[in-house]
Amino acid sequence: MLLNKSDLADERLNAKWAAWFEARKVHVVKVDARNRGTLKQIQSVVQEACREKLERDRRRGF
After folding, report:
1. Are 1 and 24 in contact (CB under 8 A)?
2. Host H or E run for residue 18
3. Nearest 5 degrees, angle CA 59-CA 45-CA 37?
4. I want to staple 57 with a disulfide (CB 3.0 to 4.6 A). Which of 11, 14, 15, 62 is the partner?
C-alpha cells in the first residue's frame, strides 16, 4: 500500500493507517514523490512482498 502525499498529511494519521494495513499483513510505504529516498523504498518493499513468489519461480526455472 502506497500512502501517497504523506508529506501533506498528518503524520499521526499516516502512522495509524500504516499500522492498520500492517496488522492485516499489507506492506506499507509512505510516499513523498518529491523525495527520491521514498521512491527508492518502494522497490525494496515490493521485492520483500514478492520474495516468496520470486524464490518459488527461480526453483521452477523461471
Report:
1. no
2. helix 11-23
3. 135
4. 62
Tell me how far apart the alpha carbons of residues 60 and 62 are, in angstroms, rounded to a whole number. 6
Buried b (16+ CB within 10 A) or exposed e, 9-20: eeeeebeebbee
pLDDT tens per residue across span 21-32:
999 999 999 998
User: Which three three-digit cell numbers place residue 3?
Assistant: 500512502
**Whole-prediction pTM value?**
0.69
Query: How many Cβ atoms from other residues are within 10 Å of residue 1's Cβ?
Result: 15
Spell out the domain ranges in the chain.
Answer: 2-60
